[in-house]
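Components:
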Amino acid sequence: MDFRLLPEEELLRKEVERFVQDELIPLESLFDEAPDIFEGSRWKSRARLSRDPEVRRYIEIMEGLEKKAEACGLWYLDVPKEYGGRQVSNVAMIAVTEELEKTSVPFELGNHVSNILYACKGAQREKFLLPSIRGEKTSGFALTEPASGSDPSMLQTAATPDGDSFILNGTKVFPTFADVADFVQLFACLPGTKGREGVTCFLVETGTPGYRVVRSIATIAGTEPCELVFEDCRIPMDQVLGEVGKGWELNQAWLGARRFQVGIRCHGMARRVLRLVGELLSGDRREGEKFSAPLGNFLGELEALRALTYFGAWKADQGWDVRPEAASVKLFATELLHKIVDFALEVAGPSALRKRHAIARAFRHARSRRIVEGPSEVQRHIIQRALFREGTAFLELM
Amino acid sequence: MTGDRGPVFRLRSAVLCVSLFMDFKLTEEEKLISRTAAQFVEKELLPLEGAFLKQKEPFLPPGDPPLRDLDPELRKNLVQKAKRIGLWALELPEEVGGSGLSAVARTLIHREFGRTVVPFQSPSIPAMVANCRYAKRIADGESSLSLAFAEAHKTGTLSEIQTRYRSATEGYCLESSGLDVLSPSSDLFLLPAREEMSGEIGLFLLERNAPGLSIQDEVDLTTDETVGRLVLRECKAPSYQLLGHEEEIKQIIAAEQLRLAARSLGIGMRCLAASLEHAQNRVTFGRPLASRQAIQWMVADLSISLRTCTWLTLEAAWRADQGLPYFDAAALAKKRAAKMAFEAADAAIQIHGGYGVCKEMPFEGFYREARLMRLLYGQEVEIDRAIGEAISKEAVSRQREERGS
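Structure:
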């Protein structure tokens, strides 16, 4: 048993730590005042279209940071070697994100490509995958429908075969950034199929006749997911991602790998919130006595989350089935972040609900986390299913 | 001592194979130790569990049921067997008859012992005892040792130590108005005390029949243990009975916290496994309990708790072995794991229904034991507070730094 990173991973972690220290932390106070559009990773898409000079200023800073990071070799970290990336492990990516999350500046080391795009074959690579890696194209993930979410048997968007193409009909809600994306990964089912069997993933470019973005929907988290409509939208066979009828597996793979990143992101945000709480308590003895125990409790819970996340990522690196681990991390992380933000507000009082206050931002963000990418209830379902199928075997030490 | 004394001894001296990356797998050595302990529990202890749980007089007098214990002959036998395969006196070096195991190995072993309510486990004998004249006798099980750390149970630190000592002719003189001590019938007591003038803290090993030492008010605890009050009045201790100082005492507390955490993991695993099995077999209103969401969510939440506690405990133990700071990590592991064990026993009782509270089943025993573990070596809220205050202090020094620069 060993809890250290590989030497080269430790080196990478240190590089990121230095980058955060030298480049990002000095920008913190500037970004405290940033327009809402810089919450999360939204600046990457919608903000770039803005002509507002204030937004432009922040965009320029971000683009400058991107160039610096790329010059330092801190780019394309999780991209496979065959596409020119560094192909670092899941564990190392967790360590990288842990470092980045030490600052509130919303900067990511890109480019992250939706991992299922690596299923691209032949001409799809040139058209979709490589431009995504280079950051020239962005994409949306269109699975959820007005009446269906985590359950594949409820999927209604239909893909009817017609010669060497498919005709798509249906409505999708909540793909984030679909309005500014270059293409979407669309999940639809074949006629006469049930459950996950007929689910197929299509790559649909913006501007394809029959596909339109109807509206964007404002949410508490500040993201603006869209509603998409497909009306007799014809998609050629060669824009099927992966295999026909194997789309649900792609969806699972997309969610699975993301979960551990969600874990460490929640960890980072919660730590920053608790740091603010610590600062608030440090000046007031009475408040300090009142709140230091719950503060300590939450810090301990964050250690538990960190351990759970690293373990899951490590297990994924071993190539093992990590569905129950991924579900555990998603559930534990998002529920914990929510509780911590709630506690922070209790300490900070109503002034922390000012729209641009860091705790208020976290408050808006944390609530949606318990829902998006599979709500807590679905995660519990996945875990109990594994427990009743396999017993405690997956909890035993290896 | 050249004979083959089982895999634990064989491998203990083997060169440590140091893997150089994050690896949550057990090493071959760790696997063997864990398996040895698991087999001991499975072959020697679990078969006794049924009889142990059912032991009772045919007609109980009104009042509390009697304390359950192992037959003394049986216990002696088990000690011999455990010793033979290296599951005894885990911390003591081999020279004085212990097994000299790492903190990770000890964690793995106590985790296995935790899977049964049969009251048998390797006793807590801190490593510093090795250097005293009683070491051999303690390791052989001829003398029993009890840790009288009552004053450390509140905070898990040394802040509340009230027992006093001062230098006297040819040694020290100790004074205490009373310390609650488990297993009050022990031959030797290990306890921390504070020097009257300097406030320096020392670790003392006292003989039961030392002049000035008395045990009063022996009573049964709600767990199957007894507790007594250790009183020291002008108790004389020769200088060789001072075994250590602050650092050693902190190590003992951390080692005990890790032992309790590890034991809690065993309790959690047993309760979860039994609950899963029962929920699949028990049918209510035409459907197995396992199909009910109320039950599913209980086991799902428990499994996460169990997993987080497993890694916090093992990481703390690993840090101890690496010479890294680990006291805070051990306290946190104990706090969370003991709470988890309590909740696991609670869930197991609920899922088993009426059987759950029956003394014929192990769950109510785990429930009582886990409640006690939560109270030992640091109240939950004190452990939380220590961590919370640390971050507030950190914030103060950061603000000062910023103002200074």
